[in-house]
Amino acid sequence: MVVFQFPPYEGSSAVQRALRFVQYLPAFGWDPIVLTAQARAYERVASDPTALPAQAHVERAFALDTKRHLSWKGRYPQFLASPDRWWTWQWSGTWSGTRLIRRFAPAVIWSTYPIVSAHEIALRLARRSGLPWIADFRDPMVEQDFPEVESIRANFAKRELAYAQTASCFTVTTPGMRDLFEERYAHLRGRLQLELIENGYDEASFAGMPNDSPPLQAGAVTLLHSGGLYPDIRDPSNLFAAARRLIDRGVVGADELRFRFRGTGDDSIVFRAAEKQRLQGNVEALPYIPHVEALREMVAADGLVILQGADCNRQIPAKVYEYMRTRRPILGITDPAGDTGRAMLDAGYDCVAALDDVSGIGVMLERFIHELRSGKLAVARPDVVHAASRRERTAALAALLHRLAETRAR
Fold it and tell me: Which of 52, 165, 284, 318 is most buried (CB neighbours < 10 A)?
């Protein structure tokens, strides 16, 4: 398993996918061998060690972060960040991976994007060893206008094609990504498998959490957005504009509505948008906290907020599944026709409006507040929640591993 974002990495829910696979795979007959980077490559490191199964062997290859280790006053040439800021571990990782293959004789190679260098290592190992390779995509690597720089987009497209020509299987996290790859690599149909294994939540992380927690702010409706924000694609400006209209109409009092943003990565996005709508007193942006504490905060919120622009219609933030597990109502500010919007509607949520639709957001926000006040809380269907557990997702991966291993054995 070639994965860059792995404990003690901290700062994003991205670490959860590989971590939970490693924790649950032994229950399905697979012993994970993890090839990852040295902790020096991570900007933030967790203080508490994460429990891993005894069967899991973890190898850490030498790695540097161009931004922190190879820059001058924070600046560096683009070639020192190709294909990403952690390109240095491509060489050490390939060497370490070759040693691991000789020592353990694994049955399958698995790697995960969006850290391109992880796929680059796996590509080299698959070509050298002849082992079946599963290339996992948590996000699209190349789309029509992404990456924005044309030369980088062309470079990524060339790399992705090489992965498709070498890998036995692409696993993806959303139906939209599966459709994208089916169209793009139709000429490889029959040789390249495409499998949907969505993200999820870890039931063990919710152990001991009360179903009824004290409100985050007594006397006010507090809506929480947990996780990173980005200009355009995760911008709360239109949500605040809709809230301003409701306050001005008297639908909700100015002191009755609060927005909390946790671990945005750039709090200025929140404060600029709040100032424009005169909502400074209604908004707070708080720093990143450890994952379990973030889950506890979600459980205590009156409602949870998803922000996702139409440019990300083929993506579903991993926190959506954690949101569903909290049994709290969710306000989806996302395209109802996108993968995130469809997942929410299919799960039973009915307050979904596009990120660029202020009027639509206003209608949904008003309904959302009314339902909160009346106790008519729309939550995810139990069968949807059960299917989204990390253990269930791991069962799907284990079944794929068995198929690939059996095919190679024949």
Answer: 318
Local structure of residue 79 (DSSP, 8 states): G
What's the chain's average pLDDT?
A: 94
The yes-or-no verdict on residue 49 having pLDDT over 80 is no
Among 60, 247, 381, 25, smallest CA distance to 259 is for 247
Task: State the Cα–Cα distance between residues 182 and 315, nearest whole angstrom.
Answer: 16
Sort residue 381 into left (φ over 0), alpha (ψ -120 to 50) or beta. beta
Q: What is the pLDDT of residue 407?
A: 85
How far is the C-alpha of 392 from the C-alpha of 359, rounded, in Å? 38
> Under CATH, what is the fold of the domain 205-387?
Rossmann fold (3.40.50)
pLDDT confidence of residue 195: 98
Residue 213's Cα: distance from chain center in Å?
26
Quick one: pLDDT at residue 210?
Answer: 77
- The answer to whether the CB of 249 falls within 8 A of the CB of 285 is no
N- to C-terminal Cα separation, the chain? 23
Does domain 15-200+390-409 fall under CATH 3.40.50.2000? My reply is yes
d(CA 168, CA 404) in angstroms, rounded, equals 8
Residue span(s) of the chain under CATH 3.40.50.2000 come to: 15-200+390-409, 205-387
Q: What angle do CA 204, 301, 336 make, to 5 degrees?
A: 90
Is residue 66 within 8 A of residue 87, CB to CB? The reply is: yes
